[in-house]
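If you are new to this repository, start here. Below is one unmodified record pulled from the training split, so you can see the exact layout before writing a loader.
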Amino acid sequence: MSDAERELVVDRLRVACGDGRLSLEEFTDRVGEVYQSRTTGDLERLTGDLPAVPEPPPPGLRSTARVVGVLSGARRSGPWRPAHPTQVVAVLGSCQIDLTGVDLEPETHIVATAVLGGIEVLVPEGVGVDFGGFAFLGGRDDKTSGPRRPGGPIVRVDGFAFLGGVTVRTRPFSGR
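And here is the target side for that same chain:
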């Protein structure tokens, strides 16, 4: 069994924790067991109660439905296609969503939830931002700047922070 196989299982457990299928304690226990596993059967036992992994999409731009950082960091950048909506979850970790390399739809919806962690959403200059949500003992920061292009796309961000933070920031368009 390779380290790469172990890392795939840890990633799957991280997503399950971010989706609420595993508690933080269950996640931590299972990750410990992953690194003690000696056979593929041991790894399968640790994920047997989780939903099946969907088939990967065909080659080309992949749609991303969620980005999760649990006790770690996660970043999505470059050319990609945000799902409607894209869920971003940071629990004791961080996530960065970079939309500057994306051909944005007329409306892109990001739901960002930070619990004892931080999330940063980078939007290209000239893109309209509708930033909603709330913070409880945390912060929501709109650091966008510059005029909005008339008729340009809108990025809607619902940011929920619990002892954490969600920031939306402008960055020049990177193009492709």
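Two things worth knowing about this chain: The first helix runs from residue 3 to 18. The two ends are 38 Å apart (CA to CA).
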